[in-house]
Amino acid sequence: MRGLAFCLVLAAASAVAAVGYEADLSYAEGIIEITGACFVRGIRLGTEPPGGIDWPEAEGDPLYGEIRLALDRHPVMIDRTEERVRLYVDADRSGDLSAVGWERMLADGRLLASIRLEIAHEEGTTAPYRLFVMWSLFTPTVLMYCRDTYREGAVELDGRTYDLVLIDEDTDGRYDRLDGGVLLIDADGDGELLAASDSHERFGLDAPFNLDGVVYRVVSVAPDGSRIRVEESDEDVPPKPPLLVGFPAPDFDTADAAGEPVSIEVLRGSVVVLDFWAGWCGPCIDEIPTLNGIDEAFADAGVVVLGINIDRSLVDFLEAVAEHEVGYRQVYDGPEGPVNTLYRIEGIPMTYVIDRDGIIRGRGLRGEQLRDAVAALVGREEGGSGDPEDP
């Protein structure tokens, strides 16, 4: 009897631990307006029509293919004549292909059409799914497509409601593949969802995330994206600090190439230019004269230029500094170092301009724009233009 009671207690504890948060999500279109890009897939078109499909009668030279989404295959036909190119698609799973008009021609010559499909999921359910389809005369046997649909809603986590967007990032028509999806959460509650790769509001569906000191993990999503379940996790995951202008620069504690301690807090009171770079990065090397110039011109005004190097080895770093005559202070962070990880660096060169109070005032600036941003910041403090050469 005692053993049974103990098992019941364990079962109850497990049930409590498994309690999570669920939310219903509604269908929406226009994800390109949020993300600015999408994962493009392609299919091969052939001259031989697959069997079992009632293809439209072609007027010119037809090409045939099938777009595969979730459990469905949607037949597609491109009919080419000297006067025009016509697109046919079975969008509603009826077995009939209908003509779809091209919306416009892109700058690279590709024709673009928008198609709303009805795709099948498990348990006999269907859901709409909008695609952009692209075809080019220069690569006629390839049809490209990417999703322009998503799911949106809100979820209450630990007593706070967060707006969220669920994205089928790999354009396969399914939302339940956690390794192929993205979750946007309005972490700062400003009503905007930031989808940039380094955003503090963008999370992989298969990764834990920290909101207000609590770690969560997505444990399941309906195949059509209509429902999501999130549970609290005991994983140790730091929060993602915002990397936007107007927010505090994330602090770090490291040492420079001379062995001196350096951090945002140590540099408080100085205007700081953080430059993430590597010796193998051509555009980074092109920026070195600008950074050397800022270091020389504004040192007396309390401006510190700090290079954060992500070369593959310390030897590569030292060789790059010597070869390109880098004159400003350096930190060797390495390809997976703590500083570039903290700042979620995915492309270099990347710069941050930080004011004397540790607030980000500029990011991603190069050349004269970078110099002007530093000069303007110093000038506002001193009541002048900020340029040491001005009388």
Secondary structure elements and pairings:
Blueprint: H1 2-18, E1 20-24, E2 26-29, H2 31-35, E3 41-44, E4 61-69, E5 72-80, E6 85-89, E7 98-100, E8 104-105, E9 111-120, E10 126-135, E11 142-147, E12 149-157, E13 160-167, E14 182-185, E15 202-204, E16 209-211, E17 214-221, E18 227-232, E19 254-255, E20 261-262, E21 271-277, H3 282-298, E22 303-309, H4 314-323, E23 329-332, H5 338-342, E24 350-354, E25 360-363, H6 367-382
Parallel strand pairs: 21-22, 22-23
Antiparallel strand pairs: 1-18, 2-12, 3-11, 4-5, 5-6, 6-7, 8-9, 9-10, 10-11, 12-13, 13-14, 14-15, 16-17, 17-18, 19-20, 21-24, 24-25
Strand content: 35-45%
Largest beta-sheet details: 5 strands, antiparallel
Number of domains: 3
The rounded Rg comes to: 27 Å
Order of strands in the sheet with most strands: 2-12-13-14-15
Which CATH architecture of the largest domain? 3-Layer(aba) Sandwich
Poorly predicted sequence stretches spanning 5 or more consecutive residues: 4-16
Mean pLDDT: 91
Give the distance, in angstroms, between the N- and C-terminal Cα atoms: 91 Å
Level-1 CATH class name of the largest domain: Alpha Beta
Helix segment count? Answer: 6
Tally the beta strands.
Answer: 25
Overall, the morphology is globular
CATH fold-level name of the largest domain? Glutaredoxin
Structural class of the helix and strand makeup?
Answer: alpha+beta
Helix content: 10-25%
